[in-house]
Predict the structure of Equilibrative nucleotide transporter 3.
Amino acid sequence: MPCKEEDPGLPTAQGKHLGIFICWLLGNGCLFGFNSGTATFAGVCTIAAVFGIAEVLFASISCFFELLCVVIYTFVFPKLPIVKFYHYKAASEGSMTVNADLAAGGIQGNSNPSAEEGPVFHERLSSKQVLLQNVDYAFDMFLIYTLSLSIFPGFLAEDTGSHNLGSWYVLVLITSFSAWDLVGRYLPLINRIKLTSRKGLLAVICSRFLFVPAFYYTVKYSDQGWVIMLTWFLGLSNGYFTVCVLTEAPKGYKGLEQNALGNLLVLSLLVGLKFGDVLDWLWLIGKGW
């Protein structure tokens, strides 16, 4: 039979051999990476380790400067003369406004003749004095986040025992902690269940360290349901006690003292976070690494 003639209108295949050669090169390139010797593998691991160490160092430096900023803002910034000047200026203007309002209502604000010389201001407590009066509250914040971060998320993500949820298990635990932490932050709005006793807060917050043996033995001997329930209580107590401390501590102080106390409590919180991150590694002891 005569051969079928090609349609001259169809494009002709060009570069076929060049395409085959390029695919051959690409294939060899992939195989070389998987079948190289020890030196290449060590080089890749070294590069990965360098980037990992650099990331850890960057995070550590960032946390250090964050803590440094909080310390400077708490202890150094309020002592600057320009800051004190504007604080007193604001207080003076506020005092004059109040006296003017009282005078407009027919009430004599101050019958002391020396008041014409200017309002008398009471010196605010220093940050050190505020801290000494609220050491227990600062210690509360430190303990709350040291305990929480020593378990969440590292332990929950790496050592959660046997379960049937597969890769969803860790996601369920982290979501449970976050959701119940949010719930716990709104519970103090109910006055009947809000804990206001300073000694009571310290005692109950210290008792939260019972979560450590509870998680250890639950993961080792129980199933996933008990671990999820413990995670609920961990998140709930974290949010609840945080709000209780932050709302009770500033009571009885002036505005500037409240600001100083708030900064001190945040500093305690950040230090607790860092200690919790360090303690999180203790769960890996005896795991064969």
About this structure: The radius of gyration is 32 Å. The chain has a mean pLDDT of 76. The first helix runs from residue 16 to 34. Residues 182 and 239 are 6 Å apart (CA to CA).
